[in-house]
Amino acid sequence: MDPYRPVLTKRDFVGRYARGEFGNGSPTWLTLKEFIDDSLAGMGTPLGDDLYHLRNGAVAGGETYYKQPWELIMARWGALPNGHDWYCSTQVPLDVERTLLVQGEVQIAVPGGGGCGLELFYSTVAKPMREALSTRAHQVQGTMASLILREYLCPNSLDWLYELLYRYPHHVVEFSAFSRRWGTLPNFNTLFWEVRQY
After folding, report:
1. Distance of alpha carbon 97 from its chain centroid, rounded?
2. How far is CA 121 from the centre of its chain?
3. Which of 18, 32, 56, 179 could disulfide-pair with 28, CB 3.0 to 4.6 Å?
4. Nearest to 194 by CA among 101, 72, 36, 64
């Protein structure tokens, strides 16, 4: 597998995300069977307080179900006629979500688009990404975008963000940065949610 090949489709992205290609993320399951097996093995907590996010993995901008308990994920995912098109991630715990610093989308300016350097579309609203960006968001470019990212992303996260922008030119990177570390990798305060072509 070439780790620098472009992300071609939503389905292409999802498989690569679950394998950890894009860095620190949320624990993710591609099938209901994987989700059940890991839960029974103690890697999920069917009787605990964890919440999950069920997403359409075939359609960009498709349906999504935030903050679902284990039992509801089981029922909903199992009832979907096209369940193989869906995937599930652990929802950011509420105590971490409350420490949100910034989240949004960043990319290198589109050639000929009038911008220069980085372009950042972001929000500081502590809600899931779609809700936060529709509630209150800002667009900045260049030095201002760099300063905001440097202010809120820990050094590991900032270095990795720039690595993603280098590895995947002509792509947008979605991220959320918190004042606490959380995710599949230690010592990152930023989750990288999506890498997609613009």
Report:
1. 13
2. 15
3. 18
4. 64
Cβ–Cβ < 8 Å for 172, 136: no
Number of Cβ atoms within 10 Å of the Cβ of 99:
14
Evaluate whether 24 touches 157 at the Cβ level (below 8 Å): yes
Scanning the chain, the segments in alpha helix (DSSP H) are 10-18, 32-40, 70-79, 94-97, 129-135, 142-152, 155-167
User: Using the 8-state DSSP alphabet, how is residue 185 labeled?
Assistant: S
pTM given for the model: 0.90
Of residues 22, 173, 195, 185, the one with CA closest to residue 103: 173
Express each pLDDT in 16-28 by its tens digit: 999 999 999 999 9
Where along the chain do its domains lie? 27-91, 95-197
The number of beta carbons lying within 10 Å of the beta carbon of residue 146 is 17
Tell me the Ramachandran region of residue 42: left when phi exceeds 0, alpha when psi lies from -120 to 50, beta otherwise.
left
